[in-house]
Design a protein that fits this description.
Blueprint: E1 27-31, H1 35-38, H2 45-51, H3 53-67, E2 70-74, E3 100-102, E4 109-111, H4 112-124
Parallel strand pairs: 1-2
Antiparallel strand pairs: 3-4
């Protein structure tokens, strides 16, 4: 068997050359997640702990400051995956096991993660 190497022990590849200005985003949106709560799930705890989210966030903030890119932090209480990206209707009954978001107001149906990404992208505008 191979030994698991946590991602936190592997350095991030920050040595690459920065992208030209036309390829660089003007705003980056990061969602503040409740990592301590996620670590309580026994099935996901090891994978979440290996990711090194604090180091990722630290590197993004550092590199964005160097490049002059604005970083927005979305609150962990922002209902990004429960809010319709088209009309703004909030589905309070949506659970983590529901992978498709279906809006009862406008009829929008899309993947839950894509809906959340659209809502976070709207925060940047």
């Amino acid at each position: 068997m191979f030994a698991r190497t946590p991602c936190t022990k592997r350095p991030l590849r920050s040595w690459r050359e920065p992208a030209p200005d036309q390829e660089r985003p003007s705003v980056i949106v990061l969602e503040d997640l409740h990592i301590a709560g996620m670590l309580k799930n026994r099935r996901l705890a090891r994978a979440i702990a290996d990711v090194g989210m604090y180091e990722f966030k630290r590197q993004i903030l550092y590199k964005a400051e160097q490049a002059g890119v604005q970083v927005l932090l979305a609150s962990r209480w922002e209902p990004s995956s429960k809010t319709c990206s088209c009309c703004g209707w909030i589905n309070e009954a949506l659970t983590l096991s529901d992978r498709v978001f279906a809006c009862l107001e406008c009829g929008n149906v899309q993947d839950r993660d894509a809906n959340a990404a659209n809502n976070l992208a709207a925060l940047a505008q």
